[in-house]
Amino acid sequence: MGGIKDEIVMVRIALLLLLLAGSGFALVGCGGGGGGGGGEETTAERTSGGETTSARTVGGETTAARGEVTTAQFASANLTLTPSGDSGVSGNANITDTPGGVEVALDVQGLLTQPGTEHVAHIHEGGTCADERAGNGAPVLYPLDPLVAKEDGTASSATSLDGVALRQLTSGAPKYVNVHAEPTGEAGVVPPGIACADIPMGG
Known about the structure:
Order of helices and strands: HEEEEEEEHEEHEE
CATH topology of the largest domain: Immunoglobulin-like
Number of domains: 2
Mean pLDDT: 78
CATH architecture of the largest domain: Sandwich
Distance between the termini: 92 Å
Helix content: 10-25%
Strand content: 35-45%
Shape: elongated
Low-confidence stretches: 25-72
CATH superfamily of the largest domain: Superoxide dismutase, copper/zinc binding domain
CATH class of the largest domain: Mainly Beta
Number of helices: 3
């Protein structure tokens, strides 16, 4: 009986050694040789739904990190509003692509009107600021939310234009952003411009 038990024990030990040897070969096969060493690092990027996800593989483990949206997907144009005539009003117009259209954000300073006064603003098509200042203003393409004067002579507004892309505004006929003076009180009369910025053409 003792001999049979010894033989069984020996067989088990031999099987265990074979299993351990097989595991060692498998580990060497995965980690070494060919094109993928254990210390190699690879990076892959995937873009989905406007968001870029980068995957980094180090030593067989993969980690993913969310990246920022590229400017090609959500473009923007930063324009400088310069005074028209001797208004002294200047500022900025920022046009930024959004998932559903564009946002036009206006900020001006140098207003001399009473606090609470509304100044209408538009995007015009078919002319430039030079044309506007020469009395040949172009038709309104998109009305923008009015700017309301504050006590310090500043004002701002943000308008969402649905279904419009920045590439549309920077192609075709020339366009410009125009901020107008305070209302005259006459029906149908649009007051003159006080600050203007040409939208750059060519995409």
